[in-house]
Amino acid sequence: xxxxxxxxxxxxxxxxxxxxxxxxxxxxxxxxxxxxxxxxxxxxxxxxxxxxxxxxxxxxxxxxxxxxxxxxxxxxxxxxxxxxxxxxxxxxxxxxxxxxxxxx
Length: 104
What we know:
There is one protein chain. By secondary structure, this protein is mostly beta strands. About 25% of the residues are buried. The protein has one domain (about 5-95): Lipocalin. The chain has strands at about 5-15, 15-25, 30-35, 40-45, 45-50, 55-60, 65-75, 80-85, 90-100. Helix content is about 0%, strand content about 70%.
């Protein structure tokens, strides 16, 4: 399943909805990713694909330091799943394929 490309993603947290754009790409045969969020740009760590399921974690520093673990499913041009980390309950994740940003 093709997951490479840009994804507009919303994460519904107790602190409000956070938005980010993911860029997923293959380099040297390995799936990699970058999250360009409202406050920082992060690398997707241990990004793994199993069929239509993607998992990864990222170390955020804003608005607070924590490790967020993502588990999402891709269905065509839609993404759904969860993000969990720290003392917060799991947050709902939703997204859709997006056009490449002008500065990518």
